[in-house]
């Protein structure tokens, strides 16, 4: 067995050298880990987050990897902010090859207790932002020969969950938006796919525990009750995103990759 040749071939398929990626919600959690993983494989990364300090921390973690890292404070619910962020990205790196629409928020309430502004906020950050960034980025991808868009859905994109009506609606929308975009832009060599994580140990999960009045450690213990016997890590999701961003998945589009340890099996 020629292990060197195997390693070289694997590296070629997963390499993102000379690619440029934009990642939203990139100041912490899954978004930060996606940025690091893409950078490890050679991509320059544009880090979008509403919190500029968090975005800069992610950029600082990437810079030792020897690739470009640009932190941009961006409200992904604002058309003008998404337009400016896209323009800054192209000005800095001349192209956009990968877009990871990862930003999202959750409010753990049912339809009766949920206030209208809470509904609007969850839909805007989690679903509308996918449209806004894609609207700006796709023409640049098409101009340079194509690209890969990876949207972050959820296990609750594919089934309902308790006390999370706005989140379930938004994440369900992300999956069907992904399918529709894959149909519309395949001829431009733009692939559009979705990762659907289960419970992942992130600051967002901690916030959910607080909203529900649950102990975080107990919540994690309960969430680990799935076929693979543990809660997910941000690295689990980042690895799936890398697969969908790379040539390893060059004939995959319009798909939902569930990353949940078998939770909805």
Fraction of residues in H or I helices:
40-55%
Poorly predicted runs are: none
| CATH architecture group name | 3-Layer(aba) Sandwich
CATH top level class name: Alpha Beta
Which descriptors would you attach to this protein?
265 residues, alpha/beta, Rossmann fold, seven-stranded parallel sheet, 7 strands, globular
Summarize the entry for a quick read.
The protein has nine helices and seven strands. The chain is of the alpha/beta class and 265 residues long.
What can you see in these coordinates?
It contains 9 helices and 7 strands; from the N terminus they run αβαβαβαβαβαβαααβ. It is an alpha/beta fold and 265 residues long. The protein has one domain (3-259): Rossmann fold, CATH 3.40.50. It has a 7-stranded parallel beta sheet, with helices on both faces. Helix 2 runs parallel beside helix 3, helix 2 crosses helix 9 and helix 5 packs parallel to helix 6 (165-185). The radius of gyration is 18 Å and the shape is globular.
